[in-house]
Amino acid sequence: MKTLLVLAVGLLIAADGGNVATKERERLEGTWTITSVVRNRNPLPEGRLKDAKFIFQGERFAQELGDKNLAKGTFRLDRGSKPQTIDLMVNEGGEKGKTILGIYQLEDDVLTICGAAAGGERPTEFAAKDGSGCTLITCQRVKP
Fold first, then answer.
1. Backbone angles phi, psi at 16, to 5 degrees
2. What is the mean pLDDT of the chain?
3. Are residues 93 and 72 in contact, defined by beta-carbon separation less than 8 angstroms?
4. Where are the alpha helices (DSSP H) in the chain?
5. CB 33 within 8 A of CB 27
6. What is the CATH number of the domain that holds 83?
7. Residue 128's domain spans which residues?
8. Are 84 and 56 in contact (CB under 8 A)?
9. Total structural domains within the chain
10. In 10 A of CB 125, how many CB atoms?
């Protein structure tokens, strides 16, 4: 009986973990205007960000610049990590076949992602220091 109870509790915890992941993806779902990008301490000029956006839908993401597709693929979140992690598995675009390891923070309608260069180690802080290879991206949710 004790074994059955432990198994039942384990299954409930696993099911709830899936719900947590789904809820977090739902919080991220939608279109996000990219408001700033800093790579290796160097900010991208605002003019180059015009029409830049991330789109998250289910387990898929797209990064676009106007009508041009920069990257598409799937993503995975781990809200239990500190800081929370995001893995972007790129299926289309310049980084096709690569996984970008990052961290993210979602507060209200502001999404911040700090990602390593493809193949690099996951960042541990929200910073794009000189020579780090990290890119710090800030996004604003587009209201429907």
1. -65, -35
2. 86
3. yes
4. 2-28
5. no
6. 2.40.128
7. 2-141
8. no
9. 1
10. 12
Return the pLDDT at 14. 37
Does residue 96 contact residue 107 with C-beta atoms inside 8 Å? no
Contact 64, 70 (CB under 8 A): yes
Residue-wise pLDDT tens digits, 43-85: 998 888 889 999 999 999 999 999 999 999 999 999 888 999 9
Flag whether pLDDT at 39 surpasses 50.
yes
Helix (H, G, I), strand (E, B) or coil at 47: helix
pLDDT, average across residues 114-128:
94
53: its two tokens: 């956006």
How far apart, in whole angstroms, are the C-alpha atoms of residue 34 and residue 30?
Answer: 13
Residue 13 pLDDT > 90, yes or no? no
Q: Tokens 């409930």 map to which residue?
A: 12
CB atoms within 10 A of CB 139: 23
Q: Which residues contact 88 (CB under 8 A, 6 or more apart)?
A: 61, 71, 73, 74, 75, 99, 100, 102, 115
CB 62 within 8 A of CB 74: no
Segment (H or E) for 79: none
Contact 130, 38 (CB under 8 A): no
17/128 Cα distance (integer angstroms): 31
